[in-house]
Specification:
By secondary structure, this protein is of the alpha+beta class. It is 33% helix and 24% strand. Helix 3 packs antiparallel against helix 4.
Length: 195
């Protein structure tokens, strides 16, 4: 987990994947941060914005998380619009739906952070627990993106507080938010504010 000294909050970048781990949605904040359009992130296109030294780590880590259908936290370097790389922390919560509690994919977020300088950083992940970065009062995005981000934060808080009885309802809300975000990606006219 990152300390307050390690984080410098910027807008959270929301993403959705399908059950195969292919990206189906990225928020406008991801596009603004990377300087890439949303269409370039679809499927595994987002990997081109990940630092070359972190790509194989990301691919392998995300494969393990997907095989376990587990929530996860992960940090890696992401290329900014200007070509520089920044550290981002993020993670995702799995979504399950009918029939028979079928694994649908992930709803997650990424947030830039500034390393404290006291430790060397490497890309790594933690399967089994998504710990969202601290809330950002400067957050922007669509209403649905903000709802998705707050649901992700609530998921982390519920586990810390021991109110696990709320998790099934919250996970259902996360699943619906992910489906709506992914649907908005497909249904947008290319001339519109495309996500």
């Amino acid at each position: 987990m990152l300390s307050a000294a390690q984080t410098r909050m910027v807008s959270k970048m929301i993403f959705v994947t399908d059950a195969n781990g292919e990206v189906t949605y990225v928020s406008p904040e991801w596009c603004a941060f990377t300087g890439r359009d949303a269409a370039s992130a679809i499927n595994d296109g987002w990997l081109s914005a990940v630092h070359p030294d972190d790509r194989e780590i990301a691919i392998e880590f995300l494969r393990v998380a997907r095989e376990n259908r587990s929530e996860y936290s992960f940090r890696h370097r992401l290329r900014r619009e200007n070509g520089d790389y920044a550290w981002v922390a993020g993670g995702a919560i799995p979504s399950f739906g009918p029939p028979d509690h079928t694994f649908l994919g992930y709803l997650g977020s990424l947030t830039e952070f500034s390393p404290s300088g006291s430790e060397p950083l490497t890309a790594y992940g933690n399967v089994g627990r998504f710990i969202p970065p601290p809330a950002n009062s400067m957050q922007s995005g669509s209403a649905l993106e903000l709802v998705a981000d707050h649901l992700l934060m609530a998921h982390g808080l519920i586990e810390e507080d021991g109110a696990k009885e709320m998790l099934p309802v919250l996970r259902e809300a996360l699943m619906v938010a992910g489906l709506l975000l992914a649907r908005s990606m497909v249904s947008r006219d290319p001339g519109d504010r495309f996500h």
